[in-house]
Amino acid sequence: MKIAILSQDASLYSTKRLKEAGEALGHEMRVINYLRCYMNITSHKPAVFYNGQPLESVDVVIPRIAASKTFYGTAVVRQFEVMGVFSANESQAISRSRDKLRCLQLLARDGIGLPVTGFAHATQDIEGLLESVGGAPVVIKLLEGTQGIGVVLAETHQAAKSVIEAFRQLDANILVQEFIKEAAGVDIRCFVIGGKVVAAMKRQGAEGDFRSNLHRGGQASTIKLTPEERSTAIRAAKSMGLRVAGVDMLRSNHGPVVMEVNSSPGLEGIEAASGVDVATKIIEFLEKNAPLENTRDRIQG
């Protein structure tokens, strides 16, 4: 197969590993900077152009879309879909998971465990909002934040009010969630491919930091999942419609609660901690699930 990895940077660990894994299995791999793609949106011959040339012979795309570039990145993925190209994750599923509020609402609809979460627009409603999630301490999150940026632990009622008022003064949209104290700065990342958990790791936050993101100095190690945790991760990925996903959850007193579902999960931490060749598993999934006769041929023929 001819596989395009949609990534801004060919030197990133995840991008390099996917390229290496695909080439090792005999596929023609190419890294495409999706921000440099432009599109011809027509019904008779839709096309994606890169470096002035049409990308006509792509069988599969693997989106590695940065959170800050979701709008344009998903537009490129969607254009490939219009052309009949199989995508490791569909554009709609990526958009669904990137909208934190929508993601949580869909997970709640499907009965998946979540921290108690509140959302409001007006600062006049702060008191009711805090009461709805059980009061301080609470975690306040920017909807647009990634990698632990824009996440604040407010330990008192007054601190929570001050932080919420400051964010709203900047017209920033925020979520307010109960603080899962018993998690003790540890979360679980499950890597789901095709409805199966293929690898998992435990992430411990840096000393003095309740956030466990590896980008913020957290440490990763192997972990044994419970059947409920495994089931929760699979259901969360399915709820988003993601074929490839990183599902982050905490161990709470009332079972696993999902914090986030990531459509472009990094490979470095999970491969190092679990010892699993996740990149190869992604390529093998594509081998089994990409249609043999690409519908793009019928569109362009």
UniProtKB/TrEMBL annotation:
Its EC number is 6.3.2.-. Keywords: ATP-binding, Ligase, Magnesium, Manganese, Metal-binding, Nucleotide-binding, Protein biosynthesis. Mg(2+) 2 binds at residues 260, 262. One of its GO terms (cellular component) is cytoplasm. Binds 2 magnesium or manganese ions per subunit. Residues 104-287 form the ATP-grasp domain. It is an enzyme of class 6 (ligase). The keyword Hydrolase does not apply. Belongs to the RimK family. In the C-terminal section; belongs to the RimK family. Its cofactor is Mn(2+); Mg(2+). Mg(2+) 1 binds at residues 248, 260. ATP binds at residues 141, 178-179, 187, 211-213. Mn(2+) 2 binds at residues 260, 262. SUPFAM superfamilies: Glutathione synthetase ATP-binding domain-like. This is Probable alpha-L-glutamate ligase. Mn(2+) 1 binds at residues 248, 260. It holds the Pfam family Rimk_N. The keyword Metal-binding applies. PANTHER family: RIBOSOMAL PROTEIN BS6--L-GLUTAMATE LIGASE, RIBOSOMAL PROTEIN S6 MODIFICATION PROTEIN. HAMAP family: RimK (MF_01552). GO terms for biological process: SOS response; translation. One of its GO terms (molecular function) is ribosomal S6-glutamic acid ligase activity. The gene is rimK.
